[in-house]
Amino acid sequence: MKACLSDFKGVKPSGDRVLVKVDKEEGRTQGGVLLPTVAQNKPTAGAVVALGDVELVQSGDRVVYSKYAGTEVAISGDEHVLLKEDDVIGVLTSGDNIAKLKPLGDRVLIKCAQAEGKTAGGVLLTTESDKPTFGEVVAVGSGKKAEDGKVVAPNVPVGSTVMYSKYSGTEFEEGDDQFIVVRESDILAQLA
């Protein structure tokens, strides 16, 4: 007998998993141009609709997750993703405003430094040079759970300037600003 998830009345995540109803994909640009499927950005945000044994998120929270995380499932015609709680990057407390993201666990939200647009001699650069790997800490998560069960808060204060590993984290753009969410272990140094 072949069954699909639409044949069932509910999905109850087990263990440390959460079920997230994925936001709808944008099929058009802000200017109204219809995008082909291959050009559409796949959403990496949605609302938590069911919980397993988790502590950091609640049902109804709007969360952001890594685009490579979880298992995609269709339930009653809607796209969902089944994630480990650790794959949830943060909770969006205020609409889609990434600057207001509340990082989870040992994650840190950093506003990236702007790349220089011209050389020291004043020549404008037309190609994107290496992106800076430093920025200002905007928010920190509650911390990572130690083996004894106690939560160890990140040792990075909000407002500090930090350098982070080049290929770490998850990047977000909001207008002209770029943000990255990294784990505390990916922070190489605090800059003074």
TrEMBL record:
Belongs to the GroES chaperonin family. This is 20 kDa chaperonin, chloroplastic. Keywords: Chaperone. It holds the Pfam family Cpn10. GO terms for molecular function: ATP binding; metal ion binding; protein folding chaperone; protein-folding chaperone binding; unfolded protein binding. It comes from the Eukaryota. It comes from Monoraphidium neglectum. GO terms for cellular component: chloroplast; mitochondrion. InterPro entries: Chaperonin_GroES, Chaperonin_GroES_sf, Chaprnonin_Cpn10_CS, GroES-like_sf.
